[in-house]
Amino acid sequence: MSSLRPSIFSILKTTKAKAQAATRVAYPPACASEGAATAAARPASSTSLATLLASHILRDGEIVLLILKPSIWFILLSSLRFIAVALIVTIAAKVFNQHAGPYRGYAELGTSVIVGRLMWATLVWMGRLYILTDMRILSISGVFNVEVFDCPLRKVARTRLIRGFEDRIVGVGSIEIIPQDESYPIGLWQTVARPKLVREQIIATIKRAKQGGMHGD
Fold first, then answer.
1. How far is CA 78 from the centre of its chain?
2. Could you tell me the pTM of the whole model?
3. What percent of the chain has pLDDT above 90?
4. CA dihedral 5, 24, 72, 124 (to 10 degrees)
């Protein structure tokens, strides 16, 4: 177990440092009203990848209000259960196979499996992008095959904020987008930093679209 600790601690330390850096990405300013929430007519964060993807899915005259990636905490939080299982299996292997071989081998195998899972979660994180425009709400995801959730604002029935215990600790949350048509899939902006503020902007934008303040489908 002692050889597992340095590797796991170094992974957690690196993840925490990246999460702290991610919180410095520009977000829409805190708003006192729904009108102020929708005042951000420019993307809150922008990268060359985000710009490239957005340029391929936007329609003529469509205005991007918000472009977000999941918080860097997505990598760790989405891997927690797997890591817990891997640790339990590694410890169990030591307990029940004390005479089968040195424990160092189990520790190295367990560490490799955990690192592999974190690497996969990193690829998933890199492939996710959330976009809010004056017409639609979208999410792009996928590592090998790109999946796009695309729902016109006027066809959104409601949104829901989902925050587990781990989410509250690190200040993130997920926003569920539920379309009016039950045959449509439910969208999810997963592990978003400052989720309450982001949801307020989404709700305000949907309200304006339904009131005819913005053009939509």
1. 9
2. 0.70
3. 48
4. -150
